[in-house]
UniProtKB/TrEMBL annotation:
GO BP annotations, alphabetical order: proteolysis
InterPro entries xrefs: Metalloprtase-TldD/E_C (IPR045569), Peptidase_U62_metallo (IPR051463), TldD/PmbA_sf (IPR036059)
GO cellular component, one term: cytosol
Name of this chain's protein: TldD/PmbA family protein
Record-stated family: Belongs to the peptidase U62 family.
Domain annotation Metalloprotease TldD/E C-terminal: ranges: 6-198
Lineage: Bacteria, Pseudomonadati, Atribacterota, Atribacteria, Atribacterales
Organism: Candidatus Caldatribacterium californiense
GO MF, one example: metallopeptidase activity
Length: 202
């Protein structure tokens, strides 16, 4: 709980994360949430600091904060609960190709197939990846899994590229409500000293 105090540094200063249900033409977008609150851009992390939380009217009241337009439901059969809409990492200033230049040995993880969190621990499974050696992208790596302490890993992000794109295939399940569309967007991001497992593909 001490980690989740608003205004507390929680990640690298190059990282800003937002949720925005007001964006046009994305599957997580709507002018209003399912409680009638207008959607908006909410920064969860801004320059490394915890700057906001997603809220319904109920959770906002309980924490003495403002609703953010994140009360969503998959149908009238279920009550609205706090959910993501369109969630992304804000682009930085580094050209993508510069992220690889000084990596002596690493992994370029591409896309994703899933991930999980358990308290402060996480696992993340990219769709596929490539081995990086001497700043060059080389052979393919399969069955990659990134894992570790979530907060420690957020602090190890040392560069965020200036490119950005949305991935529209995301879905989220929470409680009994499965299959809610939740697009995610990101530029290329570089992390140092992250635990990676996988196999080189001959």
């Amino acid at each position: 709980q001490k980690l989740m105090v608003l205004g507390k540094p929680i990640a690298s200063p190059v990282l800003s994360v937002f949720d925005d249900g007001s964006l046009e033409d994305l599957r997580g977008s709507s002018p209003y949430d399912d409680e009638g609150t207008r959607t908006q851009r909410t920064y969860l992390i801004r320059k490394g600091y915890l700057s906001g939380r997603l809220h319904s009217r109920e959770t906002a009241f309980l924490l003495g904060e403002s609703p953010t337009g994140n009360a969503r439901t998959i149908s009238y059969r279920f009550p609205p609960i706090v959910r993501m809409t369109n969630t992304g990492i804000e682009p930085g200033t580094v050209p993508p190709e510069d992220l690889f230049a000084d990596i002596e040995r690493g992994v370029y993880a591409v896309e994703y197939v899933g991930g999980n969190t358990a308290l402060e621990l996480f696992t993340f499974s990219p769709a596929y990846g490539y081995l990086i050696e001497g700043g060059k992208v080389g052979e393919m790596v399969k069955d990659i899994v990134l894992s570790g302490n979530l907060f420690q890993t957020l602090g190890k992000i040392d560069a965020v590229a200036n490119d950005f794109r949305w991935t529209e295939v995301g879905w989220c399940g929470k409680g009994e409500q499965m299959g809610l569309p939740t697009p995610t967007g990101s530029p290329h991001v570089r992390l140092r000293e992250v635990l990676v497992g996988g196999q080189c593909h001959a």
